[in-house]
Amino acid sequence: MESRNVPEKKFSTGVITATVWQNQGKGRNGEIVGYRTVSLQRRYKDKNGVWQTANSLRVNDLPRASLVLQKAYEYLVLREQATASDYEVDEDIIEEVI
After folding, report:
1. pLDDT for 24-62, tens place per residue?
2. 24 CB contacts (<8 Å, ≥6 apart)?
3. Structure pTM?
4. Of 18, 2, 51, nearest to 10 (Cα)?
5. Residue 45 region, left (φ>0) first, then alpha (ψ -120 to 50), else beta?
6. Which of 24, 30, 36, 60 has the highest local Cβ count within 10 Å?
7. Edge-to-edge order in the sheet of strand 16-26
8. Which alpha helices (DSSP H) does 1-98 contain, by range?
9. Phi/psi at 35 (nearest 5 deg)?
10. Residue 88: per-residue pLDDT
11. How far is C-alpha 3 from the chain's CA centre?
12. Alpha-carbon distance 55 to 86, whole Å?
């Protein structure tokens, strides 16, 4: 049975959505490694009133796209920092993240 890839996190504003996906692939050593990707989509209703998805953006979509992409980036960076701190604890070095 094949497992379906489900979104890890979604950031939306209006009809613009950035989705974070957890993926797996083979690393250089042939071992399975995890990595994340982000997809950006715009939803719209076609002439029949049916919701559709597009990867192209209009000029007025750009500020919203920027916002959801920034939120996705923050999520990924903060998640990476939290994961790294779980494995590497050095009490002599205290760093403030701004």
Report:
1. 888 888 899 888 999 999 999 999 999 999 999 999 999
2. 32, 33, 34, 35
3. 0.74
4. 18
5. beta
6. 36
7. 7-13, 16-26, 32-45, 51-54
8. 62-87
9. -150, 160
10. 53
11. 20
12. 36
